Every structure is written in C-alpha cells, then in structure tokens.
Amino acid sequence: MLRLYRFLKPYRISVIFILGLIFLQTLSDLYLPTLMSNIINKGIMNHDINYIWKTGGLMLLIALGGVICSIIASFLSSRAAVGLGRIIRNKVFKRVESYSLHEFDKIGTSTLITRTTNDIVQVQNVSVMIARMMLSAPMMIIGGLILAMSKDKPLTLVLAVAIPVLVVFIVLVAKKIIPLFKSIQSKIDRINLVLRENLTGMRVVRAFNRIDKEKERFEDANADLTNTYIKVNRIMAFMMPAVMLVMNFTSLAILWFGGLRISHGDMDIGALTAFIQYAIMIMFSIVMVTIMFIMVPRAQAAAVRINEVLDTKSDINDSNDIKKADSERGYVEFKDVSFSYHGAEQPAISNISFSAKPGEITAIIGGTGSGKSTLINLIPRFYDVGGGNVLVDGVDVREMSQEALREKIGFVPQKAVLFSGTITENIKYGKQDASDEEVNHAAEIAQATEFISGMKDGYDTEIAQGGTNVSGGQKQRLSIARALVRKPEIYIFDDSFSALDFKTDAKLRAALKQEIADATVIIVAQRVGTVMDADRIIVLDDGQIAGMGTHKELLNTCEVYREIVSSQLSEEEIA
C-alpha cells in the first residue's frame, strides 16, 4: 500500500501541515491533565480562587487550540485522502485504457470495476484514519507513559500489567478478523460479476425464464458476503466491550492502589486524577492503533489488487523506433499471418495472405468461428500477430504508433456500441471537430436520416446508456455514420449490416460505394448478398483461406463458398 502513497506528492505540503497540527493537538491533550492536577493541588486544596480562574482559563485556551488544530487536520487529511483516491482512479483508468484486449480477457471486466471503485475507496478511507489516528496514537502513548511516570512511578506497574493483557487480547482478535477482511474483496468481485451478467443479459434471462435461477445465484453470492460481514461484526462487537472492561478494571485498580498511596501520603489527589486520565489516553490510543492494524490489512489487500492493475503491462506497446507510413495511403497487406488466443490449443487463424488496395472492396465470409473477426482485429492492432506480418501503407503495424495507425481506420465493430449522449455526440465520436454538415452527411450516407428526423429532438435526441432506446438496425447505422464522419483511409465493417433489412442494406451499400470510392474497404459479413459485388471475396474455413476471388470465380472453384451461397440463395438467384 505504501507504493500508492507516492501519488500524494501534490499534497506533500498539506501532509507536513497535518503532521504539525496533530503534534500540537497531541501536546494540548497531554498538557490538560497536568493543568487539572495543578488546579486540584494548588487551587482547590488551598482555596486559591484566582489560581483556579487563571489556570482554568489557560486550560480553555489550550483546549480551544486543540479543537481548532483537530478540525483543520481533519479537513486537510480528508482532502488529501480524497485527492489520493482521485489520483489513483485516474492512474488506474489510464492504465486500463492502455490495455490490449488480451489484458481485459485475462483480468476480467467485473473485477476491474471493483478495483477502480470499492478497492480505491478502502485505501482512501484508511488514509484518513492513518492521518488522524495512526500519527497521533503513538505520540499519545509515548507522551502519556512519560507523564504518567512523572506523576507516580510505582503506580505505572498497573499499566505494565494492563497494557500487555490488552495487546494480547487484540492480537488474538486480529488473527481472527484479518483473513475475513481479505476475503471480502473477492466476494464483492463475485457479487459484481453476477449483477453485471444479469443486467447485461436481462433479455436472455427472461427469454429462457431463468429469473428464479439468477435470483438464486445472486442470493448465494450475497449471502456469502453477508455472512462474512456478520462474522467480522460479531468479532468487532465482542472486542469493544472486552476492551472497555479491561480499561475499566485498569481505572479501578489505579483508584484502589492510588487511594492506598494517598492514604500513606505518597501521592496527592491531583496526581491521581492526572494519572487516571493518562492511563485512559494510553489504552484508548492502543485501541486506536489496533483498529488501524485490523483495518489496514483490508486496505492492503485492496492496494495489492490496485497495484496488480497498475503493474500489468500491455502486450501491445509502441515500438521504440516508430516508423511513419506516409509513402502510401490505404494499403493493407497480410503476409503469412497466424494468431492464437492465449491458452488456446489451436490457432484461430493461420497462413493468411492477401492484400487490399484503395478503391477496392475486400469481403470476408465464412462460417461461425472461422476467424473472420479475429482477422480484422489484427489490422487496428487490437491483438498482435503470432506469426507473419500485417502491413498498413507498407509498414508493419507493430512498427507504427497505435494512435497514428488507428487514425487511418474507420472501424465499425460487430456489436454496435453507443454512448450516453446525443445522436450528434455519438456521430462526432469519430471526429470531434466535425461540423454539423459533416454529421448530417454521414448520417445520410448511413441511411440514418429518416429515423433521426422522426425523433422528437432530431440530432439532439439523447441516447440512453447502451443505446437501449434505439433498435439494433438504428445502432448499426449510427455506428456506420460514426466511422464515415472520420473519412479515414481504411474502412472496416465487421458484420455491420446484419441487423439491416435487405432494402436498407442495398441502399446503404450503394451510397457507400460512391462515398468511399477512394478508400480501402474491408467487409466481414454473413450474407452472400452483402459481399457478392465485392472486388475480392476471401472465404475462411477453420481459420484458413479456403478460397479467394470474385463471386463468379468462387462459385466455380470453392466448395465452401458454394455451400454458403446455396444455403442462402435460390437456384435462380445463383444463376
């Protein structure tokens, strides 16, 4: 966890100021019992009213100063802790944004959400407690022991017995509670996972009438977390009365033996009063330190999880010797490319070689799981090839900067993703400085103008989270408009026409043909009708190229393509 505190650098002045304020507050707290002892011995016992008023006024001033120091220290420590949480969240978010898809697959989305929220909150909360308790408690214990001994050394033997008893008891409690705290974070991960799956898969859950089963899954995860918290709270509930019992017996012992010493004339009443207060301060500070040592392991477990995110390096990084691809424009070439997913026994694609040029439409078709989406994910370098080379404008994508590479590409993913905001904002996601004319033109080419104009607020219509207030076909058309407004060198459509009806599909492809005539277009599709007019059709089967050519050529030469065509088109349409 200490590694995370290096992010406190912007607040180092505040931290120094907090230390000073806590030191002053501790001094005031330690000095007040001594003043109270003096009032009893010199004022009350001697009936010196003036001394009582004078010393009492000084006590009030010191107490007021301690309160002011405490308030300012609490404010600054809270501010520093919240600032630390903000900095860590930013660092975690930036690190996650740099991940390749491999890191997302390995770590998992649900645990990344928990680590960015709950885990950072744990570190933030403990930071406040460290600033307020961990710093003042040791000073209070040391100072209290010194001042208690200055009042009466023999009576400190009571503390010599009470403090070890208290420490042993707290250590036993800590041994029970720390493992429970460490397991809580993984149980929160589990709840987050189940909840996220239910929210994103609500349609599937209802369609298959699995609501009761999903409730049972959530109840199991929830009960597991609840039972762990109950165990923790039971131990904590037992600890505080037991600690108070030890403290009260200690106070009783001090009064008993202190009274005997007063009766023998070895101690005065004021010293006994101050000694009791110092004893309570010492034991209370020990309890605070102990609570900290119980809470810190949970924050430490959270910190370890946060550091795992920060320490995970992306498999995909920019080369030290970045090359610029300026000599050509829109050229894509695969040279004997192979790729395997992490942990997979068989490669997803192997020995893929082809080229795509500006002004050409290259279509990729094949059965489910044949490697179509995997192949095009290698172009924007979402994954790195296992063998061979992917070239864009004559340069290997691994030798280009990721930013420069992706600026050349307009990518429409298989699953249309929209963000909360207006339709205009979603289209401008492809080009932030796009004018209204460019937005309107892109929507018109994507055949989205008709349904946008039918909405109450037109282009200012708010898209709900996840695009739940628009249909699948509307999502796809807005995603296509987002790529078109960018006017890139290379267009990649990953099965982006699947939710469109045949009429809209045909109109959109006709409009696209004129709009992107000078660009390189790569289309992944399941429909033969979508790809049959392409300049080049690549047929994938089991991760390898089964055939390549035009529609007519493949009908004569590729058995896999003929099977796909015959499953979708009638004999008349094929002829």
What's this entry about, in short?
Among the domains are: 2-7 and 87-311, ABC transporter transmembrane region fold; 331-408 and 525-575, P-loop containing nucleotide triphosphate hydrolases (Rossmann fold, 3-Layer(aba) Sandwich), CATH 3.40.50.300. Helix content is 63%, strand content 10%. It has helices at residues 12-44, 49-97, 101-107, 109-134, 136-151, 156-200, 202-207, 211-263, 269-311, 372-377, 402-407, 423-427, 436-445, 449-453, 472-484, 502-515, 528-531, 551-557, 559-568, 571-574, and strands at 332-339, 349-356, 361-366, 387-392, 395-396, 409-412, 421-422, 462-463, 490-494, 520-524, 536-541, 544-549.
Q: Outline, from the CA principal axes? A: elongated
CATH class of the domain at 2-7 and 87-311 reads Mainly Alpha
Under CATH, the homologous superfamily of the domain at 2-7 and 87-311 reads ABC transporter type 1, transmembrane domain
DSSP, total strands:
12
Strand order of the largest sheet: 6-9-10-3-11-12
Largest sheet: 6 strands, mixed
CATH third-level topology of the domain at 2-7 and 87-311:
ABC transporter transmembrane region fold
Distance N to C terminus: 70 Å
Helix share bin = 55-70%
Poorly predicted tracts of residues = none
What does the radius of gyration come to? 36 Å
Strand percentage: 5-15%
Structural class computed from helices and strand pairing: alpha/beta
Number of helices: 20
Question: How confident is the prediction overall: mean pLDDT?
Answer: 84
